Amino acid sequence: MSEKEIIAKSISKKFPQKFFPKISYMEVLRDITFEIKKGQKVALIGGNGSGKTTLLKTLAGIYFPDQGKLEIRGINPIDYPEKIAKITSLISPSLDFQRKLTLRQTLKFFYNILYPHGDMDFALSILKEMHMLHMLDKRLEGFSEGQKAITRIAIGLMKQPEILFLDEVTTGLDINRKEDLITFIHDNFKDNTIVMVDHDPVVVERICDSYILLSQGIIVKQGKAKDIPNELAYKYEVRTLMKKRYSYDEIVMLFPDQADDVLVDGHVVYFRAANEDELYSIIERLKLITNDIVRYVVSTVDLENIYLALKPNAIKQIRNAETKKGLPNKTPTIEELQEIIKMFGIMILPEKRKNKK
Ligand SMILES: Nc1ncnc2c1ncn2[C@@H]1O[C@H](COP(=O)(O)OP(=O)(O)O)[C@@H](O)[C@H]1O
Ligand SMILES: [Mg+2]
Description:
The chain has helices at residues 52-59, 81-87, 103-113, 120-129, 145-157, 175-188, 201-207, 228-231, 248-254, 276-288, 306-309, 312-324, 334-343, and strands spanning 4-16, 25-37, 41-45, 67-72, 88-91, 163-167, 193-197, 210-215, 218-224, 236-242, 262-265, 268-273, 293-300. The chain is of the alpha/beta class. It has two domains: 4-230, 3-Layer(aba) Sandwich (Rossmann fold); 235-300, ACT-like. Chain A, domain 2 (Alpha-Beta Plaits).
């Protein structure tokens, strides 16, 4: 278990800027250094645009680093991309499908074209575990986002990769399917190395043993996955759909204790709770205005809005790490975060995903 599986030494990656591609670059990864041992399961976390996907794609040999050295099992992906492709799999939400093909035809397509070493039976067993076998002869045009996510997982895991790179694979999955996937990974990839991006702290804690926190393309923190909850100021989010649009001030009049922990976005109000007691007290108050509410959903806090959820100490550490590397502080302070919540309410909501039809 102590073999080194992935070694990254001072990796940097630049992308040309949109408007001045020849003269101006944006550094998306800077001086990234870490080691991952065989069998380790690592979560990449960080805010939107912090470089998580770019790092995963670089590890998978899809992007080449501009500087630094990368070794996967002692192989540099630049030298032997086909060797890396054979043992790794990147599952990413950007994989699109032919809408008119059925699930069975889609699997066959990827099996024949991309993965001559793939195992069709294994793909079918994934579908069985994820309760998707009944969809085999349905066209993908009718699939929900969650069903497409499972299709991507089946395609990506079909070749039984030794190293898994998973980019937001549980996004769009309902709670049952998330559990199915976690169980499937535990049962089938216990000894495999996994590097994954996921916004659900529960998924991260259940699958991963460690985490790497990125901010502006640098590693600002590393630690054990089981310690993530201790870094979070909030544990739960109550997303409440109101019958009418509320302003922030109106909501704070109704929930005076929640002034610093509420986001108002028109009909939707997000309450954040640090623990079960706070959660129950929010729900008790919601019960008092039940006639104004269409519905509410309780979930664990989303790591995509990580800076909103972190404790002040963790934010300070990130800012210190950024300053040390000579970066302008883009991570907001706690005071700035509270200002943002009060002024805009909607500022830090997750980016709306484009639904490609
Ligand atoms: N192919 C690309 N060309 C130019 N800029 C890119 C490209 N891919 C990502 N970026 C930029 O790099 C930054 C990091 O992106 P990404 O790695 O996707 O972040 P994350 O996955 O953490 O949200 C973003 O500012 C994004 O706009
Ligand atoms: Mg990403």
